[in-house]
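W.,

You were right to be curious about this one. When I first looked at the sequence I had no strong expectations either way, so I just let the prediction run and decided to look at it fresh. Below is the sequence, 76 residues in total, followed by the output.
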Amino acid sequence: MRIELQELKKEMIARGVNESIYAIDTLPSYEGFCIYDARSEIEVFYFERGNRFELKSFKDVQEAVTCFKQMVFNEK
C-alpha cells in the first residue's frame, strides 16, 4: 500500500470516521466510499452492490486523497 494511503487510513481512524462507510485500497464488503490503487492510477468511487459509481481516476495520489476526503466528509 502506498504511504499516502497508509497515512490516509491513520487520519480516518484519528478523526473517528466509521470504518464501515469507506475502504482504502480494497473494496468494502457491501457499500461505501473507496480509494483504490489500480497501479497506473488511483481510483476514487462509491461502491454499492458490486458497482462503482462516480468513478474518478487520478495520476496524482494527493489529488485522489483530496477527492476521497471530500466525498466522505460531504456525506458524513
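Here's what jumped out at me. The longest helix spans residues 61-75. And, maybe more interesting for your project: The chain has one domain: 3-75.

Coffee later to discuss?

I.
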